[in-house]
Every structure is written in C-alpha cells, then in structure tokens.
Amino acid sequence: MSERPPLATRVAQTARTRLCPHCKATILESANVCPGCRHHLKFDPAAAQRQSETRTALRIEGSIQGPSPAEPCEYCVVIAIRDDHGREVGRHVVGVGAMRPGERRSFTLSVDVVPPPGPKPLKRE
Q: Domain segments of the chain: what residues?
C-alpha cells in the first residue's frame, strides 16, 4: 500500500479584505464577526479561536462639548494611518455632525490586533 504524500499547504495571506454583506464596510477576509456592525459572518472554529486571541493594542476615549453659550458648532472625525516612515497610508472621514450649545459627544478609537490565519490545505484535484 503506497502512502499518500501530505497535502501541500499554502501560506495564508494577511490583510486580504472583503465587504461586509450587512453594512458594506471593508473588513478583513478572515473576520468571522464584522467589527463595524457586529453581525456574525461565518462559523469557523479556527477563526473563532483567532478572534479569542485578539488583543486591543490601542484604545483612546474622549469627549467634546459644544461651546456654551455660543452658537451651534460642527465636527468632523478623521482617522489617519501612517507607516513607520510617517507616510500616510490611509485617511478616512469616520463621521460628521453638529452640536448645539451645551451638548456633548463621546468618541472611542480602538485598534485591535488579530493573529493571522494559519496555512490552509490546498484542494486536491
């Protein structure tokens, strides 16, 4: 009886993206839960294990208050991402709005780090 050679494996590619079918946000292809709308996307025990290993690398919370007793004001929330050389690799307007005098808005910025997916076996033909 001849032994079958082990299935070839391919190295998983990190940072591959897709659109969430619910909210249309660009998310990681490996995500089993959308970080934006929090809908479950697929059942994958390996992805669930990776998700449980997620750590929050950065979390900033803050709030602003409309000027009092001045006129209403507007705000614009912008996130800029830079590489280790200071070059901007992404810039996104996250939200805009207005506040009446005395109103308050709170903001939370969170950056989660997820381990990359492991290698997947190639399908035999």
A: 15-53, 55-115
